[in-house]
Amino acid sequence: MPVESIPEEDLLRFLRQRTLFEGFEEEDLRQVAGRLGEHKLHAGQDLFKEGAPGETFYIIWAGQVRIWRREGDREIELAILERGDKFGEEAPLFNRPRSANVTTLKDSIFLTLEQENLEWLLRTYPHSKENLTAIAESHRIARRERFDWVQDGEVIHLITRRHWMELAQDLAWPSLLLAASGLVLFGLTIPGLTLISAILGGAGLAAGVLWFLWEAIDWRNDFFMITNRRVIWLERVLLQSDSRREAPLSAIQSVNVDRSFLGRLLDFGQVNVRTFTGTGSLTLTNVSQPRLFQGNIEELLLRVRSKTEEARTDAMRIAIRQSLGLADPDEVFVPPIQPMSPDEKPLRPFRLVRTREVEGNTITYHKHPWVLLMRIWIPLFLLLGVVGAAAFFIWRDFASPEPVYPGIGSAILFGILLGIVPLGMILYAYLDWRNDLYRITKDQIIDSEKKPLGQEITKTAPIRNIQSITHARKGLLRLILNFGTVTVVVADTSLTFLDVHDPATIQQDIFYRQEQLKFEAEEGENERERQRLAEWFKIYHDVTESARPPEDKPEGE
Length: 557
Fold this sequence. Notes:
Blueprint: H1 8-16, H2 26-35, E1 37-41, E2 46-48, E3 56-62, E4 64-71, E5 74-82, E6 86-87, H3 90-94, E7 101-104, E8 108-114, H4 115-124, H5 126-145, E9 156-160, H6 164-170, H7 172-187, H8 194-220, E10 223-227, E11 230-236, E12 242-248, E13 252-258, H9 261-266, E14 268-275, E15 282-288, H10 290-323, E16 356-359, E17 362-366, H11 369-399, H12 408-435, E18 437-440, E19 444-450, E20 456-462, E21 466-472, H13 476-481, E22 483-490, E23 493-501, H14 503-547
Antiparallel strand pairs: 1-8, 2-7, 3-6, 3-8, 4-5, 4-7, 9-10, 10-11, 11-12, 13-14, 14-15, 16-17, 17-18, 18-19, 19-20, 21-22, 22-23
Helix pairs in contact: 1-2, 4-5, 7-8, 10-14, 11-12
């Protein structure tokens, strides 16, 4: 049915705020509005079922829906969507059946585009097809990847990668190696050096293929993402842990796009996401469709700010009602925008040794295991040599029909005596590595170094006084193994977390603690302001009531 219950100006204002219709002129929006339908459902009703044919695209005008799938006997919740969210684009766009179930959680009103009108939109405004296709691809990637770090209630809105030009640049050197190796192997065989040419060419081809595949997979595994809570840069290093840098929506101050001439032609560029503190700012390079990425962030920022303003009004209303004795005793204000907290577990931790431990409000970090390995490899080599020699003598004693020296007992004794020194060195190095701790508490960062049987040095700094946080992974080895240094500048000093695993995650943990403290301080000030205003209203109410003539007062007063 056509849109009837929504005033035209309200509908046009709503469409202007949607990234899908960014750049549309007023007349264009009116044409789109004229083709929109309206569909209403009560809470608890199914909009459509998984596997059903689909010819309709939906935008939520009011209400809330749950998107879910059934796997065996379990219901897997995919997302909770609310006003302004769009869904159902894959079925009509790619002529596929519905990929999930949609059930209303509240009484809901949907704006709809049927197949014919959707095709008109995509045909008349080609850039809207690019936007809708990118959104559909984002949903497909989210279903395939199943990002296990996504929190409850968090909805992925857009996923994109670096532009293919970045991949082309990354593949240039391995492609050159492949070409040179092919020439050596097949085209430049020198008489008398056929074997050398074959060896060199074959080795070059093998290295080139591996390098080519590494770069392609590395490009494919990097994502730029937007959820209803944060902007994320996810980097995956093949066969190693992931790194995730992000900025919460509630902390974002501005979003800018920089594009070169080539970037404008091929639609890629740099997206700069700046936060209020600056320590959590992101610079995303060579982003494909950067304007779409920017538009989605700005649309969600409008929602966050709108919710914040509504929450302030609701909080004031509750405070005034409580001061006048009109509120329900159980009526408590809960801020709708909560600061995000650090993950309970690392993204993909180092497999052999725990380098990040969460206990209550305290997160403890250890140096990367590579640091330990570099300290113990010599005594470890010596210890393995001693064990190997002892094993050889024991085997020789068993294999020889005649008694030989040293015998089993002597070999074991010498092994123990000779192994004590390297074993002690390994134990000392492990304890020294284990005792170098970096911690984040609720309001402090701590750098603690303790030598076994030696002195202990501890540096602390308040999180609220942090001026900047930077991290670096310098050198190929640190890039591959994902470890580096986090530097925290506080006033006229700095704390340095040396050789820590996944420094980007540590930087993000500190940033989240900053945001938590900032949120608590602001909420405390807002609560005090609400209480002051509520007290004034109570005084005003008491004064006006006492000034009313007795005959105007209700009976019993």
